[in-house]
Design a protein that fits this description.
alpha+beta; about 45% helix; 4 helices; about 100 residues; 4-stranded mixed beta sheet; 4 strands
Length: about 100
């Protein structure tokens, strides 16, 4: 994903960004974040995101992010590799929407 973002000329993101609560405690580590725009990109690999525990954890985590005002985009490895233009279009659309709203 980092390579795709770079190749696509998308800037302003941070990899493995740690979201902290008001007390400084780590709430979540985001695969990729645009902190100023509150856009999170998650890359969902089958191994790390399969099974009941992972499924439940991912939903809880996404709800936490959404309630804090984050826009969460989720992509699979297959989409990143085989549909890179679509992935980039989604990211660009999110950046444009958040930039206009701010």
């Amino acid at each position: 994903m980092a390579s795709l973002l770079r190749t696509g000329g998308i800037r302003g993101w941070v990899a493995n960004w740690v979201l902290r609560d008001s007390l400084g405690r780590a709430v979540a580590e985001l695969d990729f974040a645009f902190p100023e725009l509150k856009i999170c990109i998650e890359v969902d690999g089958y191994e790390a995101h399969s099974g009941r525990a992972a499924f439940t954890r991912d939903r809880r985590r996404q709800n936490t992010l959404e309630l804090d005002g984050w826009l969460v985009l989720r992509f699979t490895w297959h989409q990143i590799v085989h549909e890179p233009e679509w992935v980039l279009a989604q990211v660009r659309a999110a950046i444009a929407a958040r930039s206009l709203a701010g």
